Every structure is written in C-alpha cells, then in structure tokens.
Amino acid sequence: MSKTLQAIRGMNDILPEQTPLWQHFEQVVRDWLRAYGYREIRMPIVEPTGLFKRAIGEVTDIVEKEMYTWSDALNGESLTLRPEGTASCVRAALEHNLLFNTQQRLFYSGPMFRHERPQKGRYRQFHQVGIESLGFVGPDMDVEHILMGARLWKQLGISGIQLQINTLGTSEDRARHRTRLIHYLEGHQALLDEDAKRRLHSNPLRILDSKNPALQDLIAAAPKLLDDLDETSLKHFEELQAMLRVADVSYSINPRLVRGLDYYNFTVFEWVTDQLGSQGTVCAGGRYDGLVEQLGGKPTPACGFAMGVERLLALMEAQGSLPTVHVPDLYIVHSGEQAQRFALTAAEQLRDTGLQLVLHCGGGSFKSQMKKADASGARFAIIIGDDEVNAGVVSLKSLRAQAEQISVPIAQVAAMVRHSVD
Ligand code: ATP
Ligand code: MG
User: What span, in angstroms and rounded, lies between the C-alpha atoms of 420 and 410?
Assistant: First the structure.
C-alpha cells in the first residue's frame, strides 16, 4: 500500500470542528471593519519577487530566509508566495490609481506564506487580517488603528493583550542612530552571531529584532533610537501618546520594538500577550510613509497593521471565548421508496421557509437514521413513512425534549419549530 499523502509541514488543514471558530472570528471582524469605514481589497497570492524585495527590504529575515520563491516555468520570471499583505496592497492601490487625489481605508485578509520553523503559533501558511490607511499623515490615524485593535479584542471576548509602542523616527534619525549603533556593535564583534555579523553594516537596526537568546543582553544595552530623535519625530510620538491618554488606552513604550520589515517610520506598535508562550505578538504594525514612493507612487503618508489569525484564535480558545456551534433545525428521516421521494420535495419546501435541515441520504434502518438525526445536533426530526405520505403531512419529533410526536402539515412546520421553546 502506498504511504498516505500528507500536507506540507506548517501548512494546516482547518477541519470542520474548527471552522465555526474561524467563521465567528470572520463575522466579528467584518462588522468591526464596517464600524470604522474600511473597504475590502483582494490581491493575488503570488506576486513578482521584486515587489517584496523592494518593499520589505533585502536584508530582512523575510526576504533573506522566509520567502517561497521560484522561477516561472514559462518565462523564467521570479515569483513569490506573498509573505505579507502591505506590499501587494500598496502595489494594487498604485496600479489602479486608488490614491489619485484621495485617501483610502482598506483591509485585506487571507493566507500568507513564510518558510519558518513550524511550532505553536508559527506556521508556514498562516492567516492575517490587515488594514492599511493610505494618505493620512497621523498621528490621529495611528491612534485610530490602535483604538480599532482595542475594540476588536473586546468584541472577540479576549483580554490580557498589552499594547507596546515605539517610534522609528525619520530616515535622518535612523541614519544618526545607525552610526552610533554600528560603533557600539563593532565594540562587541565577538558576541555577534552570523546574521548579526552580516547585517552589521548593511542593516544594523535589524540586529535589534533578532530572536537569538544569546544576543538579548547585547540588544538590551544597545544605544536607543529614542535618544536620536529630532523634533518632528518627538512631536509625532508625543501627540500619539497624548491622544492615547485621552482615549484611555494603556500602553508601554518598548524602545527595542523595531519590527521585522524595513518600511516603517515614526509609530510602530505591537499587541502582545503572555498567554501564548514565545509566539506572543498577535497584531503588529505602524507607519510607513516612504513605501508608496518606494514602489513608484507620489510621496504618500500611510500606516497599517496586520494580525495573526491563528494566534488570536488560540487565545480565544485558551480563554474559552468560543462561539455557539451551529446545528440544523431539522433532520429528515424516511422509510420506503415513496416516502423518500416525498421527503425530497418536503425538504425543499421546508428550506423555502428558511429552515436549515439535513435530509437523510444513503438508506439504512429507521433506527440508524434516528441515531444520525440525534448526532446531527438538530432539535427536531421530521419522520416520513407511508402513513405520512398518504395523509400529506409529516411527523415532527423533538430530539431534545420529552414530547409527543405530532403530525403537522408541511406548511406549519416552520411556525411550530420557531415557536417551540426547546
Ligand atoms: P514574529 O516576530 O512573531 O515572527 P513578525 O514580526 O514576523 O512576527 P508581522 O510580519 O508583523 O510578524 O506579521 C503580523 C502578525 O502576523 C504577527 O504579529 C503574528 O501575529 C502573525 N504572524 C507572523 N508570522 C507568522 C507565522 N509564521 N505564523 C503565524 N502567525 C504569524
Ligand atoms: Mg517573523
């Protein structure tokens, strides 16, 4: 016998037991986005590799190590499964002229792909919901994004998610900081790992984002970007904090928060929980005023964030914030050829009234059909035999309460089911 085929490691099937939680999440998210006036955009899952190199930055974990990239068999073009949504979203906005004299509040959702070591909360195919506000200088828009996060956690019924903020300043700030940082790191060459050595001169800020435990002391003692900020950057950061205080959002400043992508400036933030082990960041984002221009558009201020759906769902499960499981209203059992035909049309008539029902298929004894009816979770069984067919009615039996089975004309089933308390 041949070996059973398996999915790729780190790429998960989402099974019927789990989809109710996903659907509940998606429903809450849709309503939440509407409440803030965000419109959906859907981009392709595959993009030219150059898009991500240009947007995310060549010297980043994502571009150096995590992308699924291949060469197209027909024309040799380098293609990549999207590792994130911002680059594609901005590309699409530019390609379709969505930023011409106007601002945009957009959202996207769907699978992202990164070639990482799979572990709890870290997968190779995972899902994000992301929003991007294009054309807003902020920091009022940065605050809108943060308030949106806070509201969503509430609406999902989860608690214990903390907000960390930082600022990455302007490119001039970062250039100043870079010099100090390189100087500091050069003084500790021996402590650097391979990645850090390689990035020391190409992208030293990225070293601060390293997850290597051996580097954490070195990172903690490194010069802080906060100390290299000019007045504009400080003002943006101060105003952001003032608005957060007015909105009564608690936060902490994490000067080590640099984010794993190169396109950020000014505000960056992460929503973090300590309830998911080391994969504790459930949502992350910030301002990326340079990206639109970097991808060929006119200079356009912008900011956004993306949340990790799997991590949020894990948190909902851990905190018992689960949706009620959906069950059909009815399960129709039938015996005999005549009854089966009658059941077929009865089922369609009942669906016309808005009822949700499962029609038994595949034959079997009355007893085994009733077992399936029970297992379906339906509140009622409709039973159809020769007697019912001859009388032009169906029998309605509660599967959850001790009640007599009754004969009902099809036209009255919906009312009876809706009005029964059980
Ligand atoms: P991390 O530091 O955990 O690798 P990141 O900075 O690479 O995260 P972002 O690119 O900011 O992540 O993506 C936004 C969110 O998407 C993360 O905060 C996280 O919740 C989720 N996410 C990122 N990578 C993965 C992954 N491989 N598996 C599951 N969720 C992920
Ligand atoms: Mg990562």
Answer: 16
Indicate if ligand 1 lies below 6 Å from the C-beta of 209. no
What is the side-by-side strand order in the sheet with 394-398? 357-359, 330-334, 380-384, 394-398, 406-408
| Whether the model pTM is above 0.90 | yes
Cα-to-centroid distance, 38 and ligand 1 (Å): 22
| Ligand 1 centroid to residue 62 C-alpha, Å | 10
The rounded distance, in Å, linking the Cα atoms of 166 and 298 is 26
**Among the atoms of ligand 1, which is closest to the Cα of residue 282?**
20
Taking residues 261-266, what's their average pLDDT? Answer: 80
C-alpha 256 to ligand 1 mean position (Å): 17
Whether 284 is in the pocket of ligand 1, judged by its Cβ within 6 Å, is: yes
With a 6 Å cutoff on the Cβ, whether 61 touches ligand 1 is no
Locate 165 and state its tokens. 């903020």
Gap between the Cα atoms of 130 and 307, Å rounded: 6
Give the chain's count of helices (H) and strands (E). 16, 16
Question: How far, in Å, CA of 249 to CA of 142, rounded?
Answer: 13
Are 104 and 274 in contact, with CB atoms under 8 Å apart?
no
Contact 84 CB / ligand 1 (< 6 Å): yes
Please give the Cα distance from 333 to 359 (Å, whole number): 7
Kind of pairing between the strands at 162-167 and 252-253 = parallel
| pLDDT at res. 260 | 67
Bond prior to 323 in cis (omega within 30° of 0): no
Per-residue pLDDT at 256 exceeds 90 = no
Contact of 331 with 378, CB cutoff 8 Å: yes
Rounded (to 5) percent helix, strand, coil in the chain:
40, 20, 40
Which residues of 114-168 form beta strands (DSSP E)? 125-134, 162-167
